[in-house]
């Protein structure tokens, strides 16, 4: 599951500006970043870092500030390997001045923890968040927005670690703080309830998730423009929720709205638009509206082939979905053709244990079993059995399914001596 990060880039201005050249570079960096000219901003940020070191020295707070700002920029653009050493260096300076009890030090801890969360280094992230939480609570008070931000980010970490009870209590506390301090119309509050809705969806607590999704959706609907992406995300969240609840008509409604937004913003020939209409196709399949589903599956495949190329994994997934559609309709020849193409694409990955490849091989094996072509299904099922044993281990349910399917082939073809050891 994918979660919304409660983070607004805080480019901190120093109390005193001792050198004009650094001041100019830092101001230019902030302006470029706020105008979303990220590449130029980072180039200027690198220059500002060098200027700060030259003008103030490597142990000065201003140098730590430049390290932090540049690290944050790299974090936001996904360049984690560049961000990490800058955060660590800033942290070491700030630990001495202004000291471990200062909010600036807590900000660096919090954002380094965000980096570790993004890179799935959860054991490194948790103690940093806990320390940032303690510092912000003591220095700023437990009703401060920055304290709420740390609560939210720590909750996000616990979601990733599947510690849902801990995550829920933190999200609820963050919601309570933002509701009291900044109000229900503040973006931070909306972000918090969106995260809480995602959590409840993951916990299959759909009745709790629904009103939160609706509240967030109403906010974004009333605040268009810069929040268009958030509005689209809220539509997608509601559609996904209603899909899981089996309320397909409602899911269709929200996916259609999301499709219209993506078509307008990214264009009809775009990966974003294809992603939405693929989900809509799955809804139509669930609603047994097969003609509508087929047209969308075909459209998704065509778009992904054009945008991503005919060797891209997402194009292979589109072909697999189309094949499954034809399998459901009993059109086995069409299904087989698309399944084999999907396997060929997934098989280009040197790692034949990748989940797409295993899934596609399983699908074509099931097709052969339905057609009674057990001699063609058997080698595929044997391959799957060995691959799943290596990937998942012998105690995994997926491995047990592969054993059962292979045993079915042996039972149906009267080879009981091969079937019995599999059970």
């Amino acid at each position: 599951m994918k979660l919304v990060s409660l983070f607004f880039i805080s480019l901190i201005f120093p109390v005193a500006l001792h050198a004009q050249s650094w001041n100019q570079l830092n101001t230019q960096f902030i302006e470029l970043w706020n105008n979303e000219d990220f590449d130029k901003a980072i180039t200027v940020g690198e220059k500002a870092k060098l200027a700060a070191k030259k003008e103030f020295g490597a142990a000065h707070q201003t140098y730590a500030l430049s390290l932090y700002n540049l690290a944050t920029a790299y974090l936001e653009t996904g360049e984690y390997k560049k961000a990490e050493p800058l955060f660590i260096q800033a942290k070491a300076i700030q630990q001495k001045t202004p000291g471990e009890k200062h909010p600036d030090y807590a900000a660096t801890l919090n954002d380094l923890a965000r980096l570790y969360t993004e890179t799935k280094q959860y054991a490194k992230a948790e103690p940093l968040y806990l320390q940032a939480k303690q510092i912000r609570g003591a220095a700023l008070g437990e009703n401060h927005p920055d304290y709420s931000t740390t609560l939210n980010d720590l909750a996000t970490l616990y979601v990733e670690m599947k510690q849902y009870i801990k995550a829920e209590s933190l999200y609820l506390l963050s919601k309570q703080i933002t509701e009291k301090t900044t109000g229900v119309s503040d973006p931070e509050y909306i972000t918090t309830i969106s995260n809480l809705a995602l959590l409840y969806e993951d916990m299959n607590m759909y009745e709790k998730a629904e009103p939160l999704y609706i509240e967030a959706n109403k906010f974004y609907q009333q605040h268009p423009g810069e929040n268009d992406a958030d509005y689209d995300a809220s539509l997608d969240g509601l559609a996904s929720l209603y899909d899981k609840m089996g309320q397909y008509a409602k899911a269709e409604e929200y996916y259609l709205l999301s499709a219209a937004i993506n078509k307008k913003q990214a264009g009809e020939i775009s990966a974003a638009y294809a992603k939405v209409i693929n989900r809509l196709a799955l809804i139509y399949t669930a609603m047994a509206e097969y003609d509508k589903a087929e047209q969308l599956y075909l459209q998704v495949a065509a778009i992904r082939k054009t945008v991503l190329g005919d060797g891209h994994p997402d194009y292979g997934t589109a072909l697999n979905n189309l094949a499954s559609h034809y399998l459901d309709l009993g059109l086995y020849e069409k299904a087989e053709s698309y399944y084999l193409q999907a396997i060929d694409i997934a098989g280009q990955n040197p790692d034949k244990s990748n989940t797409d490849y295993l899934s596609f091989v399983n699908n074509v094996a099931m097709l052969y079993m339905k057609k009674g072509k057990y001699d063609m299904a058997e080698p595929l099922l044997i391959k799957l059995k060995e691959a799943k044993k290596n990937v998942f281990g012998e105690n995994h349910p997926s491995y047990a399914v592969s054993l059962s399917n292979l045993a079915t082939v042996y039972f149906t073809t009267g080879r009981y001596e091969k079937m019995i050891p599999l059970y």
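The two ends are 35 Å apart (CA to CA). The chain has a mean pLDDT of 90.
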